[in-house]
Amino acid sequence: MKRILFIGCFVVAGLAAGAQGMEEMWDSTASKKEHPNIQWFKDAKFGLFIHWGLYSKLAGTWKGKNYYGSGEWIMNQARIPVRKYDKVAATFDPVNFNADEWAQLAKDAGVKYMVITAKHHEGFSMFDSKVTNFDIVDATPYKKDPMKALSEATRMRGIQFGFYYSQFQDWHEPNGGRNTWDFDESKKDYQQYYRDKAIPQLKELLTNYGPLGIVWFDTPGGMTKEQTQRFINELRKLQPKSLFSSRVGQGLGDYKDFGDSEVPPVPIAGAWESIYTHNDSWGYIAHDMNFKSSDEIIELLANVASKGGNLMLNVGPDGLGTIPYYSVKYLKATGAWLQKNGESIYASTAGFIPAQPWGVTTAKPGRLFLHILNRPGNDTVLVPGFTNTASKVYALDGKMNLPFTQKSTDLYVNMTTVKNIHSPNAVLVVEYKGTAPAYNASAPVTVSAAFDNNPVGAIFAKTSGNAKVQSLTYSHYYGDWKHTTCVTDMLSPGDAAAFTVRITDPGDYKLILEYACPQESANQEGSLEIDGKTFLYRTLRTSAYDRKAPLLFIKHPVAIFTVVKPGIYRIVVKPYKQGKELFKLKSIIAEPIK
Ligand code: FHN
Q1: pTM of the model
Q2: Residue 246 needs a FRET pair 20 to 30 A away by CA distance; which of 22, 260, 383, 441 works?
Q3: Which domains does the chain have, with CATH numbers?
Q4: Ligand 1 pocket check for 219: Cβ under 6 Å
């Protein structure tokens, strides 16, 4: 399935994301009327996702075999028959679950909403349902409804509470989507499944748990656009204020969810959300230790906010109801950073200055927030294309004023006195007069000697011939989707990628191409042109592009270029001769030679 986003002059033809290619289409260009209750969501910026179900008890292991990637897919991955999976419920006793502790963690982390799995694809209801006995009250020794207490404890702390509900995939039911190992697909009646389980259960959730901020649907199927609209209308009556995620399907829903673990490369208008796992799985896996550190979470949060969206970060509690140690630790550290710097995130909009080698920007009326993710070696932050007049600049944490100068549309901030250099993200605030300018998507990308390296991403390429800018989706394990924007389809010298950069300092720069290259593309000659000089190189083999395997990128130094005069330069990358696709180009990195 193809999704096309039109943003400024960029076109990103994105490949489908979402587990097993089930992602719906959501038309970001359609002029939709916004939901009247959307503002809290747009302002929230940070949410907590929780995947919790019987799979949490299995913890990524079935019959002594470890599974990797999306742990909540273990029933599907191991083809566990329903009658065997039923038995897991008899062992599910989350005695450590404490609604107040979970809600307080959410509060300490600084999230503004929480969404938890009421029923995932496995079909097990983590709430008290009268529709089925395959629920936590009837089928487990725990016998209590954790969702009641959690919804109350969360709302009590001023956090919006919502449910995830898998409305089509239900591997427990003969008519539910996608259990093909127990049930004959050709005999499935999806409408009956909607009538008998999904709709009645959603009505229970929308009736028995107080006001829901969000109903987070996932992996739609089996319904036309008209049927989906009727389904929405029927549920809306119960809670008109509740927001429905775009994965209700058919381009409907109140806000856009990108593919799992996907951040758009440039700002996107409207309400939207990026969703991320904390390690490599949504559901708990005992042997998955790949947790993002708090620095990484803060960087991700700033990056998503700089594009105008929300980050909903997932945690996977175990079968006893304990949230993993590193999720607690890193969420609390993120919250501590937000305590001091939240002003630059909550209720902000996308920054109007494109990403720079030092970081990204967010904005509020009269204020531009500079998120310094890479501190410049000379402590001078250049904000190019600043068309307003700056009146004051200060560090957000501590409110210390900073010296600055403005030469035409170049604003230079001196951050020598900002001492919290170990902070993952020191936020500087620029106050200015007048209204914010529009985001300038075609501004040249800055390359400066003040940084160890200056990556110029594929999204900034102007392509010609057959070359394209594409978002490539792939996974390392199973369902742990990665998305990388690349220039693709360069097969002949006419298929080129041109990058316009502004090099601010004289000196020698090593030019490095970052690309993925399968065996059949390796050993071909490519060229890189800059300032009338042509550099040739021979491509090196990495890996082929396959949705179900890692896409490996190499950083290949191909030229040393001497800048005598700072200014605007054009770098053109293309095949030297007609051949196979040269490579999938992720970025050009300009590394100053010290
Ligand atoms: O298949 C699910 C997956 O298990 C997980 O729940 C994610 C979260 O966004 N949604 C689906 C895949 O997109």
Answers
A1: 0.95
A2: 441
A3: 40-344 (3.20.20.80), 351-441 (2.60.40.1180), 454-592 (2.60.120.260)
A4: yes
